[in-house]
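fwd from M.: "can u put these together and see what the complex looks like"

so here's what she sent:
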Amino acid sequence: MTRRFYAPNLAGLGVAVLLPDSESAHLRRVLRIEAGDTVAVFDGRGGEYVARVEQVEAAGVLIRPIQHVDQTSEPSVALTVAPALLKGRKYDEVVRDLTMVGAVVVQPLATARTEAKPRDTERWTRIAVASAKQCGRAVVPEVRNPCSFHSFVAHDRSALKLLLVEPGVSDRATAIRSLEREPPPSTATLVIGPEGGWTTEEIMTAVNGGFRALTLGRLTLRADAVGVSVVSILHYIWGDV
Amino acid sequence: MTRRFYAPNLAGLGVAVLLPDSESAHLRRVLRIEAGDTVAVFDGRGGEYVARVEQVEAAGVLIRPIQHVDQTSEPSVALTVAPALLKGRKYDEVVRDLTMVGAVVVQPLATARTEAKPRDTERWTRIAVASAKQCGRAVVPEVRNPCSFHSFVAHDRSALKLLLVEPGVSDRATAIRSLEREPPPSTATLVIGPEGGWTTEEIMTAVNGGFRALTLGRLTLRADAVGVSVVSILHYIWGDV
């Protein structure tokens, strides 16, 4: 199996670059890869290459992309997912799993019933990088700094804006299946609530701001797991699965 | 919020029963619920009631179902999911999440490339109970004792038998979308491989045994997370979402 490394400063075919420190250390000390070996590298923006390792030293690992790799795993709809913050380490799994299922932006939200405090966005970015490495994605989603629900809803500019709600909380909600009747959007946003759900005021604000209230159906899914389920179904509806 | 308790020995409306020890302790010592209070109880087989707490003592908690609750959250297709065992505690999450998305049987499998040892099935059953409590399911999936892949494939009797494979590993594999053209089955089985994937021999054995090799599409999902994604899409295809 070819090992895969994240090199955000890749400058194209033939141009040697240094790996980031953490990637260098992993290549050199853990995997004991040597100069002359071949690895895979990706830039986090969709670029992926086969690369030759040119130099392995404590000061840095130099790699040179020698062959472009077609990356076909990105979904056609650029999806921003904005889940409410969760307590403890659960948001780590949210970031990891949304990376796995193909989100391009993860926007942590503070909502009326959010009990969690914002944590370190850099930590979540590292988790997104690790998940992209593991899942073969060449895109690392951008993990944004947490913002308030109202600010996000007021400024989001996606072509399709979705707010996931529990069945019965809004008479303006439609089943996720209703999206089948429409062509896939160019860009979409999915907003996911906290464990305690939305306030009526939040739902109204979102709906008045152009968001569609969407229900998932019969089962009640945990806040930390519902993202994988909904995003999988959205990609299925949009022809990406 | 009405608290929900698991009472597998429920005998119907009006018949007082004791809660299991762990549920009694939780009700009495953690939640400090008292005689006269109202709780929700479910039997793990689809029965759910509002119940009156009649007696709260160290020796046991007696509850009496006073009103039947219509449970509409069960998917219409009875789905058995058989994921290969995983190392460490990851299988706990598999059991928890498959309970959440509506599996009725979880069958841990030992496959050619399974590196994990079977663990305590009782532990997984407790996890399934906890997940059903949390997600509002009145059905607790049956967690079976681990068995070998070959034995399971030879004996499974579901109407539709699916083997999840990576794209490209079998020229007889079809995309999950192909299921749209068929009516929902009465019962279905979904077999999920280990982190190292299937051997060619295992795929042949399953296909020769009436399993359909199914691919999920572009993204590579982790073995511990792929179940939620695939089961969500299956329920969507079968009209249950």
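replying to her w this: Chain B has a mean pLDDT of 94.
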